[in-house]
Amino acid sequence: VAKHEGLSSTKFYEHSYDDYAFEDQWFHMNLKQALEHNEFCMYYQPQVNIETMEVTGLEALIRWNHPSKGQISPQKFIPFAEVTGLIVPLGDWILRQAVEQILVLEHNGYDDVRISVNISPEQFKHPAFIDTLTAILSERSVSPSKLRLEITETMAIDHESAVIARLHKLDEMGVTVALDDFGTGYSSLKYLSLFPIHCLKIDRSFIDDITSNVKNEAIVRSIIDLADNLQLEVVAEGVESKEVLHHLQQLGNQTIQGYYFSKPMPTDQLLPWMESFAKS
Ligand code: C2E
Ligand code: MG
Ligand code: MG
Ligand code: MG
Q1: I need a surface site. Which of 58, 59, 98, 246 has the fewest CB within 10 A?
Q2: ipTM score of complex
Q3: What does the pLDDT read at residue 248?
């Protein structure tokens, strides 16, 4: 029983080796099947420009609905998908879902809404990544500018020049890139100067207590200035309250993502939400 509880615990890396080995095996066996059995689905969370009060983007976030264990967090299963290599076919599936969702948005008149997709390092570094991405977009005649990739700087640790070359290729294609969890990496500034990127996503850990933590407030203020000087967009993630939103507004932040506007939603709730948001 204790071992099964490990699957739903958020801190499973602190478990004993036995628990780890058990979970490892469990994920190995179940992840591949999950893709075959269609147990994954995508949720979407709005990114709102608070000056115009328009939805400018949606972040695609994967969910796994296991038949007996219920919903399992991506924070838990993505690392296993990465070590097993399943992240490559799974990542392609995610990109296809996002592209279909872009078409749904276009058919409903949302022509200026971009979809952001999280890309794992292993997926990004795969030799076929750019070709696959190009094929997925062109098969459905979707403009590359409708897609944004969210990457983290950790992916450059071993393959810096290959990563930079790939980012330039994406830039040429017209696919924009956001640096996710910005501020939590180990050499953010170096990558800001080396990477051709378009957007910084300020990590939730700096945003949470911005109204009471003067250090985090100073950090966020500096990131907004930095982005402004580099002509990058900024998205503040994890905004849960009006107070935090107003504080960010005072600091000049334009784009907000967080529970304050909406939690990530399944596709059947997305269009109704967008419609009622536009009217409010
Ligand atoms: P991330 O890309 O930084 O995604 C943001 C996470 O913050 C999401 O968690 C989202 O639900 C959560 N979040 C958004 N607003 C708020 C808020 O106001 N308060 C709080 N407490 N949380 C908020 P989620 O969906 O559990 O995803 C966790 C991480 O798993 C993601 O972090 C990303 O690293 C990874 N992930 C999720 N979906 C995918 C995917 O399709 N592919 C890959 N490679 N990774 C994914
Ligand atoms: Mg993200
Ligand atoms: Mg993030
Ligand atoms: Mg993250």
Answers
A1: 246
A2: 0.98
A3: 98
